[in-house]
Amino acid sequence: MVRIVVFLSLFIFLVVSPAYATQGHGGIEGILVHQAAHVLFALAMGFLAFRIKRDELPVRKGWRNVQYAAVLFILWNVDTVFVHFVDEQVKLVTVERLATGQLHITSPVPGLAVMYYIAKLDHLLCVPAIAFLWVGLGQLLTQAETRRKKGDAS
Q1: Domain extent listing, the chain
Q2: What residues form DSSP beta bridges with 106?
Q3: Phi and psi of 7, rounded to 5°?
Q4: How far apart are CA 62 and CA 139, in angstroms?
Q5: Which of 14, 30, 42, 138 makes an SS bond possible with 77, Cβ 3.0 to 4.6 Å?
Q6: What residues contact residue 75 under an 8 Å CB cut-off, 6+ apart?
């Protein structure tokens, strides 16, 4: 049964519908709630990074990588709030699709189109953050297993 569900899921996602890299948010209420979630996520990551620093945990590899992930997630959230604000709330940029892979970005504010384009590359912050988190949690798990085995041996 599981194989059938996995096969059908892959078929639907890969064959039936196109995959889009961006997602719109319905109405102003949707974007406000979404923006609030970004702010809360950034605050939570700030608190995590602060606690790791305060408790002097970065001396251990796993916690250091989790702290790096938290800082990158903060930067990613700030970047994403900026992009959502200029694109969907105040509408200071206009994005026009010219062809597949070609966009024309314009803005009445000088330099904002370039800033917007660079900020839209938010995956350059989010993907490394996820990688640091993954590696850090793996290191913490390995350290915990090592301590547990030492405790079992004695």
Answers
A1: 25-89+123-153
A2: 94
A3: -60, -45
A4: 5
A5: 42
A6: 125
Give, to the nearest 10 degrees, the angle between helix 123-153 and helix 61-84.
160
Distance CA 71, CA 66 (A): 9
Nearest to 65 by CA among 142, 140, 147, 141: 140
Q: Which residues are registered as beta bridge partners of 96? A: 104
SS3 17: coil
The pair phi, psi for residue 52, each rounded to 5°, is -65, -45
The set of residues, in sequence order, having a beta carbon less than 8 Å from that of 56 and lying 6+ positions away, is none
Helix (H, G, I), strand (E, B) or coil at 107: coil
pLDDT per position as a tens digit, 59-88: 778 999 999 999 999 999 999 999 999 988
Spatial distance between the Cα atoms of 79 and 70, rounded to a whole number of angstroms: 14
